[in-house]
Design goal:
The chain has 26 helices and 31 strands. It is an alpha/beta fold and 752 residues long.
């Protein structure tokens, strides 16, 4: 078999064009434009809380509309849910759509995944891109959990996507057009920390679209014409569709639930055209200039990029000038092609979509009127009033036809209507209308029966706290995360610190095993546990060849702090799951999410950074740890700010981002794994909240150090020792007025 034949064999047999619907009207428009499937949110729990999401009855109607027209509909339940929402609201929200026949649900939350699998059997579950699946090992965990489709992180290359498909055999859904997040999906706290609007809860305020200045060692790296450093261009992959399909992608997903229906329909129509052309003639695939321009006219930011399919990062992917935003500020016209939008509205919104049916009407004087209808494999019959003998003028076939073919706003239109009549009878028009309505209603009902489901008996109720476990909560231990040798030294010298998490970049990949063992020995001599903190992001292949090193280390060190699913799968495959501590980015907003991870064998989880004190108290945190100090990581990005501003020197370093208000955000480059982390401008410090936290059922507290010097780390350790009553000879307690500037994070306000 030749290489081309092998590639064709890898391509999914039935390719799906998946379009966004921010409203019922938008759903109808993209179906008319050629979508095979749509994704839409309801009134709650979707990642686009500000879209014109339909209410329950409208969404049920949308499900039926989709099915009658031979398409599929997936519900977006892709936010993180709190305990009271998961147990008290999700079942009632989902039940009517499950019964109606929704074709699948897109989820981000491990608890939602487990809950839906248990409560709504047979409902296909799709892992949202916000689960940040970066490789086959993470995808494999979700497959075992019952997920049928993966929407991988948008940062993956076609090679990485192909590997997930080939190693797991799962359906792959990938974005092909629309806006890109600067941050790895699901790893963003920027909007949440700055304004309380959480992207994980569908309320992102998009601080990435704002202007920033970048400084390195005091030198300004960008100018007035390149201030939008965190704003990616929109993606357009119409040119490389064949490559995407050859990578094993089954579902081609268009972004845009917050955009106008005309936009979604217009983009769908172009991709429909080229998907069909590719199927017909794959060897001569070519995109016309007119269609490229059409896509640009619909929406763009400084032009398009092709996503991350061929690029890990780069300035050409970014809308650093952002003419759109600058024009808006200057109140200039955006020069949108209004003629195009008017054309799309007329073609896809101001129109009807009806399926062709076949009918047979029998009208004989003295007998009941009978209407038989056929649609696909469904046949129905309706019987009407008795046809009277005509006294004056009998009904003609043509008159009857004109009346019966008025199917109005129903989903059907007659392809052929055969009328059998002796033309001797008479029926009032009202009787014919009643017969037609009854028959069409019956046809719709019978056709949709195949999609209906029945709810299983019984529903999970929220367990009472402590009901599932008799574990005693041990005395609170303090752990410290270090990223530099200075911080490491400060933690080693502090007698009340139980254990240290050492960042893998501090150990270094070149001599990872030797350096890690030396650090572990230093920790042991100081009477401390030692954990290796894995990178914030792991991509397939980056740790290939290190398996024996991790197996060996796993025998001797206390454990590993993991930050994403791929790392969890990687270490689990090595038999090290019982040495894993999951960081906050493996979200446990609710207790079922915590159970999901603990069932995989992990030691502990970390309390999410967006929960408030009351929500933490309502959670089962008896096998968790809580961050009480640190500069929260706001974004983890595959992009490199140094590269966006000029050139990347492939050396770990620091950049300061300055926003419109003068706030400065430390950004660190982690070159071993090629990502940037943007930290909050002010550290979270839960000092005054110590009394509340000390009575919570949380066995481990953690302080995260990022850029602190030795002296600063020692000072923070001393402050928190005093507040949390760790016994050590410390200086006289400082007055509150002398304390450093801290934010409380979300401990007080939480997120909506």
């Amino acid at each position: 078999m030749g290489e081309k034949e092998k590639e064709r064999k890898r391509e999914p047999m039935n390719i799906e064009l998946l379009s966004p619907a921010g409203s019922y009207q938008g759903l109808q428009a993209v179906i008319r434009a050629g979508a095979d499937a749509v994704y839409i949110g309801g009134s709650r729990f979707g990642a686009r809380a500000y879209a014109d999401n339909p209410d329950v009855e409208e969404l049920k109607e949308a499900i039926d509309f989709t099915h009658i027209h031979g398409k599929k509909i997936y519900l977006a339940v892709n936010t993180l849910l709190k305990n009271q929402e998961l147990y008290g609201q999700l079942y009632d929200f989902m039940a009517p759509f499950y019964e109606q026949g929704a074709d699948g649900v897109i989820v981000q939350d491990f608890g939602v995944l487990s809950f839906l699998k248990r409560e709504f059997p047979g409902l296909p579950l799709h892992a949202s891109t916000q689960m940040t699946v970066t490789g086959p090992k993470g995808a494999g965990i979700l497959k075992e959990a019952g997920v049928s489709r993966i929407v991988p992180a948008r940062e993956l290359s076609l090679k990485e996507i192909k590997a997930i498909h080939e190693e797991t055999g799962m359906e792959i859904e990938c974005f092909v057009h629309g806006a890109l997040c600067y941050c790895y999906s699901g790893m963003c706290l920027f909007s949440s920390m700055l304004g309380g609007r959480s992207g994980n809860r569908g309320r992102c305020a998009q601080p990435c679209r704002l202007p920033y200045q970048a400084f390195c060692e005091g030198k300004l790296l960008n100018d007035e014409q390149s201030r939008y450093l965190l704003s990616p261009k929109d993606m357009c992959t119409i040119e490389i569709l064949p490559e995407i399909l050859k990578a094993g992608v089954y579902s081609l997903k268009i972004e845009g639930r917050m955009k106008r229906p005309e936009y979604a329909a217009g983009v769908t129509a172009v991709y429909r055209k080229y998907l069909d052309l590719y199927r017909q003639n794959p060897e001569n695939y070519q995109v016309e200039e007119e269609d490229r321009k059409r896509l640009l006219d619909l929406y763009q930011r400084d032009g398009f990029n092709q996503g991350y399919y061929h690029s890990h990062n780069g300035r050409d992917m970014m809308a650093v000038v952002n003419y759109k935003e600058q024009n808006r500020k200057k109140k200039n016209s955006e020069n949108r092609n209004e003629e195009l939008f008017t054309e799309l509205k007329k073609k896809y919104l101001d129109t009807k979509t009806q399926e062709k049916i076949y009918g047979n009407l029998i009208l004989f004087a003295g007998s009941p009127a009978i209407l038989d209808l056929d649609f696909q494999d469904i046949h129905v019959q309706a019987q009407g009033a008795v046809v009277e003998e005509a006294i004056k003028q009998p009904l003609s076939s043509e008159r009857v036809r004109r009346q019966m073919e008025r199917t109005g706003d129903t989903p059907f239109v007659f392809e052929d209507l055969e009328i059998l009549t002796d033309e001797k009878g008479f029926l009032p028009m009202q009787s014919l209308n009643t017969l037609r309505r009854e028959a069409l209603g019956k046809l719709q009902e019978e056709f949709l029966k195949k999609f209906r489901r029945s709810l299983p008996e019984g529903q999970t109720v929220m367990p009472k706290r402590g009901e599932n476990s008799q574990e005693e909560v041990p005395e609170k231990k303090l752990y410290v995360l270090t990223e530099t040798r200075e911080q490491w030294k400060a933690a080693l010298e502090t007698d009340f610190v139980t254990g240290i998490y050492c960042g893998i970049s501090m150990a270094g990949l070149k001599e990872l095993e030797q350096n890690t063992r030396e650090l572990a020995e230093e920790a042991a001599k100081s009477g401390k546990e030692f954990y290796l903190a894995m990178p914030y992001m792991l991509r397939k292949g980056r740790l290939d060849g290190y398996e024996d090193i991790f197996r060996n280390l796993g025998k001797d060190i206390d454990g590993f702090l993991v930050r994403n699913l791929e790392e969890l799968g990687y270490l689990k495959e090595l038999g090290l799951e019982n040495k894993i501590v999951c960081d906050y980015s493996l979200y446990t907003f609710n207790d079922i999410a915590g159970e999901f991870l603990r069932d995989l064998g992990v030691l502990r989880t970390t309390v999410p950074l967006e929960l408030n004190g009351n929500e933490i108290r309502e959670k089962d945190c008896r096998r968790s740890e809580m961050v009480i100090y640190g500069y929260y990581p706001m974004m983890v990005s595959a992009q490199c700010i140094k590269k966006t501003c000029g050139a990347c020197d492939h050396k770990p370093g620091k950049i300061l981002l300055k926003d419109r208000y003068g706030q400065r955000f430390l950004t660190k480059s982690f070159c071993d794994f090629c990502y940037n982390v943007i930290y909050n401008s002010i550290p979270t410090g839960l000092l005054k909240e110590a009394e509340e936290i000390l009575v919570m059922d949380i066995p481990v507290l953690r302080m995260n150090f990022t850029d602190e010097s030795y002296r600063e780390a020692k000072e923070m350790l001393e402050l928190f020792a005093q507040a949390y009553d760790y016994r050590q000879n410390t200086e006289k307690k400082k007055n509150r007025s002398e304390l450093p500037a801290f934010t409380k994070g979300h401990f007080r306000r939480g997120v909506e």
